[in-house]
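Subgroup meeting minutes
Present: P.N., E.W., G.H.
Scribe: E.W.

1. P.N. recapped why we're keeping a running log of single-chain structure predictions: easier to compare across weeks, and new members can see raw inputs and outputs side by side.
2. G.H. added today's entry (293 aa).
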Amino acid sequence: MKLRTGYQSRDEQPDQRLWKNLGYGGKTASHETWRYWPQAGTGPWTIAAPLGAAEYLQDGLRLFYRDELIYEAKEGEGQWDVTWQALAHFYGDLARKLARDVPMSARTCMDNLDDILREATAAVDLSYFTLDIAGGEAVFRERVYCYELYHQMRQLWPPKDECRFLLSGEVDKSGHMLLQELGADGTKPDLLVHRPGYMEDNFAIIEVKHSTALEGVRKDLKTLDLFMRKVEYKRAIYLIYGGLATEKAAAKIAAEAKELTITTPIEVWLQPECGKPATLFSKLAGPHDVAGA
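Output recorded in log:
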C-alpha cells in the first residue's frame, strides 16, 4: 500500500503514524479520505469512510454500524485494533453494496452545478422575474423567483442513481440539534444542495436577493459565511437578480463582507436581465475580492 507522498508522521503511536501516513485524518481532513474524531471529549468516536459512504461509531473497544454492534475487541486488543476493523468491515462487506450510491469523486455528480444554475436562471420566465400587480406596476418578489428557480433547477437535476445530492428549498433549520450547537438553527436558506442526514455531504448553500433590496445583504452574508465555516458546506453562492445586478451591486456586497471581516470564498452571481443566464462575477476572499473568478 502506497504511503502519503512527501509526508511522514512523527506521532508517538505507531497506529496513529500509519493512519496519517496513509493520508487519513481527523474531522477537518478531506472528505475524500478516511477521517475520525471524538464526538465529545475522549469519545465515543466517529469513523467516517470517504465521500460519506458510511459512518461508524467506536465506543471504547466496541464498534457499531447503524446502531448494530459489529465488532468487540478480543483479549489483548486495544482501541486501534477496533478502529482498523471499521475499514475491514467497509471494504469487506459494504463497498460493493454502496458502490452504486457513491461517486468516485466528491464532485462527480455536482461538477455541473454551475451549468445547472446558468441554464435554470435563463429559463425563469418574465412572469416570475417580476410579478404583475392589478392596477399597478410590476414588482419584484424574491419568493416567486426562488420557487421558479427551484423548479427549473429540479428539471435539470441528475437522476438519483447518478447523484446522491438533493436540491432543497427554504429548509427550516429550527430545532436541528447539531445546528443548535453551531449557532445555525435559526436559519432558513433559500436553496441547499446536500444529502439530508449526512453533514459531510453539505455541498452548496444558495441565497437569492433582488438588486433593489440590498439592504438585507449583511444577514445573507452572515448566513452564507456561517454555513461554510461551521456547517461544512463546500460552496456558498449569492445570486443577485434584477436590472441593478451590476458591478456596483457586487462592489457593495464586497464592501459589506469586508466590514464583517468575512474570509470565506462566497461566490457572487449576477443576473441583470431576464432570459439570460446568471454569471459568476466575483468570489469574496476576505479583505479583497477576486473579480471574474
